[in-house]
Amino acid sequence: MLIMRGARINVMNRGDDTPLHLAASHGHRACARLIQFKADINAVNEHGNTPLHYACFWGHEQVAEDLVSSGALVSISNKYGEMPLDKAKVPLREALRERAEKLGQSLTKIPYKDTFWKGTTRTRPRNGTLNKLAGIDFKQLNLGHKLNENQSGELWRGRWQGNDIVIKVLKIRDWTTRKSRDFNEEYPKLRIFSHPNVLPVLGACQAPPAPHPIIITHWMPYGSLYNVLHEGTNFVVDQMQAVKFALDIARGMAFLHTLEPLIPRHHLNSRSVMVSAPQAHPAPVALEGLRPTIPPGISPHICKLMRICMNEDPAKRPKFDMIVPILEKMQDK
């Protein structure tokens, strides 16, 4: 109905997502309708992701297949050199590769090109209507049980549109129009769909109508690393698995530290690491940090690395991009 009344089909939000990006990320079959009305099927957002990147990342098989059948390129790279095929799990990856070949697509990687505002058909709304939307409807959120609470806010498990989610309720004093504008500018930076060890923010609610600003992410099957370590799940964490967790976390944090501009500072602890077997996803959620103690009986190599990382002088602590190769060597042994 909106399209028939003149709505611009390739209009972008603050993250440069088009309606087709959003429909693909949520698995809506409305993608076919958008394509029918000439939506740019290979439009790229601020991270260089196309709608097909989103559909592959979230495992929406039918949507991904529809996109490829309609001309979505399986080998177009985002800003981080990743093709949609790189985001898909093996069965979907093979199915899309086979379909693309039948349609005559080349599987040679297409390098990312920043074509923003260079003759593209993408348009931003002049009056900023799309940008001013509150985002997710607070009334659609179902808060289940509280996971954690600290001075920065509350962490809840809940449901939204049939999906298990994590809800972060931010405690911000004296919510003003200025803070509301800053929030609108900042939270899209957390919508990172381009690294396997970073759990992206799905969306946000403004205040009002929400009682406080809210951001939501997907719930991972095993919950947080804290749940795995302290609450008796059936996930066995031996030394090999511990190194894998550490490596996944370090890779995610190293990636976050490469972003420009940097994401606002967030504290990292076991409650902010979400576990989805077999990978760990450090989620960009602000939580209080804790200084751990070194338990007895662990590898001397791990013990040495922990001591270096906990140096009282922050300037002497290694950066995450220095930690990654050390952990990779430990994992190979």
Automatic annotation (TrEMBL):
This is Integrin linked kinase. The keyword Repressor does not apply. One of its GO terms (biological process) is positive regulation of substrate adhesion-dependent cell spreading. Residues 141-333 form the Protein kinase domain. It comes from Crocodylus porosus (Saltwater crocodile). One of its GO terms (molecular function) is protein serine/threonine kinase activity. The gene is ILK. Belongs to the protein kinase superfamily. TKL Ser/Thr protein kinase family. Transmembrane segments: none annotated. The keyword Metal-binding does not apply. It comes from the Eukaryota. Keywords: ANK repeat. ANK repeats lie at residues 47-79. GO terms for cellular component: centrosome; chromatin; cytosol; focal adhesion; lamellipodium; nucleoplasm; stress fiber.
